[in-house]
Amino acid sequence: MEFPDKIVLEHGGALGDFLLAWPAFISVSRHFSNRPVHFAAPSSHRHWLSPLGTPCPPDILRGLGARFEGETWPEALAGTLVVRPGLGLRPDLPDWTNFWFLPGLAPGRDDPPTTLYREALAVRDIPFATDSPLAFRALFGGHAPTGNTVLLFPGAGHRDKAWPLPRFERLAEVLRDYGLRPVFVMGPAELERDMRPANGEMLAPGDLVELSEAIRSARFVVGPDCGPLHLAGLSGVPGLALFGPTSPCQWAPAGLEVVTAGLPCSPCTAVTAGDFAPDCPRPLPCLEGITVEMALDRLGRAGLVPGRP
Fold first, then answer.
1. What does the record list as coiled-coil region(s) (predicted)?
2. Overall average pLDDT of the 105-119 stretch
């Protein structure tokens, strides 16, 4: 069989980064449909890769690690093509033809990672799966609300992307007045930072599959620039994303409404892996400037809050 004789889909990032890469993964798996496809990713993300391939066997996993130990392509990966979309820098590896790094960020560009992944695949003559949102819902389920539950996500991977908790608490009060049932979703980061609301119902999903089920059964979702909102977007669940220091053009979840404070200094960062905006007070003005009324107005205009003009 001509090269490659097997494919490895590789990813080590957080939930949102992974979901932005999922269209690239299904594109590659379709293109090489006559080859064995394996994946190397965090166990929490394997649910969304299992329809595309199988977990890497131990010898391939050892080969992936051995890439960083020498200047030659590991024998355990002979004939293997490793495809790795990523938002960081390309791993410090030789320019091997067996390793495709697909960059999700480009200097001077404000394009979504999915657009850049599509371009990187086009250079390699790989057709992009333009139907990836529909394919995702066919495989994992779509929006199926079971009541008036609204999921509120008070946290984010980086604390400086989060809307102030008192604003969320006030939003929850008003949503109750409209006959909705707001539920605060507590992930590991929120629990660790003790971001619990003073009042209100809370949900702490046991894993990402349980989180996905909760999102799909909700009427809509509200949260900052975070992974669960990307999961909502891919699942066809409507909602509102609250953006501050990051760019909605680059990171907005597909299909969701977006609201910003409209400050001229925002966005100010492309990535939030470390410290940024050192001269700004906390909470950041670009998030504190989003009022509860602004959020409600956008939800009402989207037809998500019953009786709200």
1. none
2. 96
